[in-house]
Amino acid sequence: MAGAAGAAPAEPRLRADAKRNAEQIRTAAIGAFQGRGLSVPLEEVAKAAGVSKGTIFNRFGGRIGLIEAVISEVVATEIYAIIDRTRALDDAWERLSYYVTAIRDLQYRQPATVDTMLQAYPDAQTLMEICRAGSEINEELVTAGRACGVLRPEFAAEDLHALLHDSALVLKHGTRPQREDYDRRTGYLLDGMRAQRTP
Fold first, then answer.
1. pLDDT digits (tens, 9 = 90+) for 25-36
2. C-alpha Rg value of the chain to the nearest Å
3. Of 1, 42, 59, 114, which has the fewest beta carbons less than 10 angstroms from its beta carbon?
4. Domain spanning 11-193 has what CATH number?
5. SS3 assignment for 25-46
6. Contact assessment for residue 93 and residue 190, using Cβ atoms and an 8 Å cutoff
7. Each residue's pLDDT tens digit, 165-193
8. Which residues contact 135 (CB under 8 A, 6 or more apart)?
């Protein structure tokens, strides 16, 4: 009986240790994913958290579970805020211009946005939900833009998706442009989408 009584405090301590480890892993993952994208080696996340790689698998089941646990803080909240802000604007062109500019800005600042848009981890349900939300807003913006005559009549939602997808590919696999060049090209992209004004 004495032995059993003496062992009783061990379980609460283990639970506290597990909770602390999980929070340390989450904090390390958020920092790593925000700065470098979702493909940061788990060994580096574990080292930053002060745990073993195996602890990440024990707590989160691996990379997909870890992404699901932190993606809101990493980038999802910002993406959904852009979508909400876009829908709150009254003018069709202002909505489209704001959305394209804001998403390209987020792509440049947050590599995890690029991984999300490229569907780098299709088994991560939350990432796929973000992509579905992106497809929905693309359709809304292009439908409204064409109805109001502010977009080229032949411009389709698939074109908007492709343009944003192409910029993600460049940032992921190409030579990273200087910020001023990148922003200037955002303007060129918008000018190319806009309906030609009659003299």
1. 999 999 999 989
2. 22
3. 1
4. 1.10.357.10
5. HHHHHHHHHHHHCCCCCHHHHH
6. no
7. 999 999 999 999 999 999 999 999 999 99
8. 157, 161
pLDDT in tens, 113-161: 999 999 999 999 999 999 999 999 999 999 999 999 999 999 999 999 9
Give domain limits for the chain. Answer: 11-193
Of 20, 125, 17, 21, residue with least CA distance to 71: 125
d(CA 183, CA 131): 23
Measured CA distances, 66 to 6, 25, 124 (Å):
35, 9, 10
C-alpha to C-alpha distance for 102 and 186, rounded to whole angstroms: 10
Q: Which two tokens stand for residue 116?
A: 């999300």
**Does 6 or 56 have the greater pLDDT score?**
56
Three-state DSSP at 51 gives coil
Please give the model's pTM, rounded to 2 decimal places.
0.87
How far from 137 is each of 24, 37, 85, 162, CA to CA, in Å?
35, 24, 11, 14
Which residues, in sequence order, are CB contacts of 49 under 8 Å at separation 6+?
A: 21, 24, 25, 27, 28, 29, 55, 56
pLDDT of residue 1: 45
Report the residue count for the chain.
Answer: 199
